[in-house]
Amino acid sequence: MPQRGRNPRLEHRREAPAPPSVGILDAAFHRASLATPHGETKAARDRLRAELKIVRSSATVLRHLRLEARRFERPGLSEFEVALIAGAYGDGTLNRSLTRLRRAEERIRGLAREAERATRQASGSEELGDQVRAFYGRLSSFVREVDTDIARLREISGFLKERPRIEPGAPTLVVAGFPNVGKSSLVARLSSARPKVAGYPFTTLSIAVGHADLGFDRLQVVDTPGVLGRPARVNPAETEAETAVDRAATCVLFVIDPSGVSGYSVEEQERLLERWRLEYPRLPILAVETKSDLVRRDNDRVKVSAVTGEGVEAILREIRAAVRPVGELPPLEETIEEGPSMEDEPEGPAEPLGGTKSRAAGRRRAAAK
Q1: Judging by DSSP bridges, how do beta strands 208-213 and 285-289 pair with one another?
Q2: Which of 132, 155, 202, 268 has the smallest CB count inside 10 Å?
Q3: Around Cβ 127, how many Cβ atoms within 10 Å?
């Protein structure tokens, strides 16, 4: 018997994942089917069983819809995450899907209330069965209407899970620049992050976060994808990098490669630096030159080599000065180097405990110890 030809279109349909509503409704109807009410008469048991099916199925669906939205509401998204989502999926996309889910929840609650009232007025088991089936049909319709929104929320949630969380309000250094200029190698030197490093452009395809000790606070160090400085033709990775600069940075470390190994001219890199300084006038942007083991230009910028470690301490000093909160005590090592020694302190009676000068001196002595 000759074999029938394969239909690629039908095969594609079989391989396509089931829409989210299938799993949600299967769980809801299964839980409703387990209802085993007790009652003195069969009529009482039938009525209670119908009510339980309505209550259990609607409650299960509502719980699933709340779980789909919970990732974006508790504890809530940071400004940086909101901007990341807008850059990847478009402004308002997330809010529209969340709004449609909330409306579906409201409609399902109203539908359940109406169905419960109807069961109390039903005259027999046949009518109760009709009401439950009608309820299931409308419930299924409401859930299927938000299939696209549930799928989108799951996709956005996966998008965020692939990216490390940047703590809002914490000092944040964003390391940025053109591709292959040495950003990831420098991040590995400055922080606990261990980004992938390779000798070709666009090794870093999304942000990565490490941490460094400033002496007075913990610094988040963000490694970003390379930015080519083309406002009219920005790819998704570049969008993430510019979003980190715009929405997350306390300070930016702009890395310039003067060696030409990256494949980009110094002029191109300098133009991007100047553009960012114009776009973000209140944001400290520190420019450093990498690969000092290969090339050293005659200027006052810090020269750094991720190979030898040259310049790392100098960079950290500049970062401390840029991100130190006003009124904070100096870092421990600065206190030890610059603070007065015990021998230099004049002898005499201690100041009153409530004195401001006494408290400040005490903190300095404690830090020096």
Answers
A1: unpaired
A2: 155
A3: 15
Residues 196 and 313 reside in one and the same domain? yes
d(CA 144, CA 137): 11
DSSP class of 146: T
CB 255 within 8 A of CB 176: yes
Tokens of 332: 């421990």
- Note the pLDDT tens digit of each residue in 70-83: 888 866 788 899 99
Tens digits of residue pLDDT in 331-359: 545 444 444 444 444 444 444 334 444 44
Task: Phi first, then psi: give them for residue 156, nearest 5 degrees.
Answer: -65, -40
Cα dihedral across residues 70, 75, 76, 79: positive or negative: negative
The first and second tokens of residue 252, run together, are 């930016």
Tokens at 352, concatenated:
């009153």
Q: Are residues 186 and 274 in the same domain?
A: yes
Whole-angstrom distance, CA of residue 21 vs CA of residue 107? 16
Assigned domain for 3 exists: no
* Domains: count for the chain: 2
Q: What's the pTM?
A: 0.71
Domain that holds residue 136: 18-161
- Could you give the maximum distance between any two Cα atoms of the chain, in Å? 111
Helix (H, G, I), strand (E, B), or coil: what is residue 14? helix
Q: What is the pLDDT of residues 295-334, one digit of tens each?
A: 888 888 999 887 888 888 888 888 888 887 544 545 545 4
The tokens 């990732």 sit on which residue? 71
* Same-domain pairing of 185 and 121: no
Sign of CA dihedral 80, 194, 204, 160: negative
Residue 261 belongs to some domain of the structure: yes
